[in-house]
């Protein structure tokens, strides 16, 4: 006999557990030293509850299947929530051919759009290059890419997430935001 309420409860519990787990991991990686451990307490409580429901009823394979389904859907939801929240900052390096007219235009366009840009010269295989270092909020990443591609489609772009930021005008903005 299939207990639909039990299956629904198993799915919901594991879905919630994995979603919370994904968010906790994201917060941990971003350095939220108080919120991540508190969330882990909620996470483990949900986990034990869900696992005990399945282990107490191992004679029904539907319970195990629904538990696994909740796990997969929970990961998907956790990824979507993480994308939506887009916590933190990105550091983007843009490398432009130095013979490009946009080497002078792109930094100005980016600055007009509120991005901090540090510009330097480099040497590539085919000659001199202009290197732009741009620090931006992660939630603005797509907008940043769009501006770069519109102004200079030949740009080589590398993005990574810095863990700590110190100094410069961004640090002052970050400190003000943290105080609020």
| Structure class | alpha+beta
Q: What do we call the CATH topology of the largest domain?
A: Alpha-Beta Plaits
- Tell me, rounded to a whole number, the average pLDDT: 86
Strand order of the largest sheet: 2-3-1-4
* Share of residues in helices: 55-70%
**Tally the helices: what do you get?**
6
Structure description:
The chain has six helices and four strands. The chain has 180 residues and is α+β, with helices and mostly antiparallel strands. The chain has two domains: 4-85; 89-179, Alpha-Beta Plaits. Strands 2-3-1-4 form a four-stranded antiparallel β-sheet, with helices on one face. Strand 2 and strand 3 form a beta hairpin. The longest helix is centred in the first third of the chain and has 26 residues, at 4-29. The radius of gyration is 23 Å and the shape is elongated. The model has no long low-confidence stretch (mean pLDDT 86).
